[in-house]
Specification:
The protein has 211 residues and is an alpha/beta fold. It contains seven helices and nine strands. It has a single domain, classed as 3-Layer(aba) Sandwich (Rossmann fold), CATH 3.40.50.300. The N and C termini lie far apart (47 Å).
Length: 211
């Protein structure tokens, strides 16, 4: 990654709405962000978007990319691997990238990209999280496991640069707060270099107008 390109990392608990926050930020043209796909070994879900933000791999394919250095951070969640792809993050040097991951992935990416990386932790109360997971039709056992993981992750939230609570029914406010934090991290158009053309000398007429 060049010194002008920035990486925004949105992380948070399962059911926190972090994916919705990312989509909201991508729709903000002033931020000029592009989504960097992540890799996973989990099978596609019926509710995954047709143009998925993930690259679905077998475990062997994932481990091969990890060995080759293409996957720069890896985590295991619920028996599946998840990882950030270097090529996705650094594909367009003149575009800032945004990526969605968990807190462990966010902290790893911060170590890699240092001051060029902003980590934002998005969370909701455990009660709100449980309600959102139930709406997805998840079994009680899976929900219980995810809530335990969520409780641990919330306890580590201050390891990230910024922390934002995504309250039920307040998604627009959460997105606006995230955009504000990103705006404070960099000027959205800073990677677009402007040439300093010499100012044209004008001759002023006697009546005060310019030729």
């Amino acid at each position: 990654m060049n010194t002008q390109q920035k990486l925004i990392v949105i992380c948070g608990t399962s059911g926190s709405g972090k994916g919705s926050v990312v989509r909201g930020l991508l729709s903000d043209k002033k931020l000029n962000l592009r989504w960097a796909k992540t890799a996973t070994t989990r099978p596609p879900r019926p509710d995954d978007p047709k143009t998925s933000r993930r690259v679905f791999l077998s475990r062997d394919e994932f481990e091969k990319l990890l060995t080759e250095g293409e996957i720069i951070e890896r985590n295991e969640y619920n028996g599946h691997y998840y990882g950030a792809l270097k090529s996705e993050i650094e594909k367009y040097p003149r575009r800032n990238a945004i990526i969605e991951t968990d807190i462990n992935g966010a902290l790893t990416l911060k170590k890699v990209y240092k001051e060029n990386c902003l980590t934002i932790f998005v969370y909701s109360t455990l009660l709100e999280t449980e309600g959102r997971l139930r709406k997805r039709g998840m079994p009680d056992k899976v929900i219980s496991t995810r809530l335990k993981i969520a409780e641990k992750e919330v306890g580590e939230r201050n390891l990230c640069d910024k922390v934002i609570a995504n309250k039920e029914g307040k998604l627009d406010k959460t997105i606006a707060e995230a955009a504000k934090q990103i705006g404070g991290f960099w000027r959205p158009n800073e990677i677009v270099k402007c040439r300093n053309y010499p100012r044209r000398a004008h001759n002023r007429r006697r009546d005060g107008t310019i030729e």
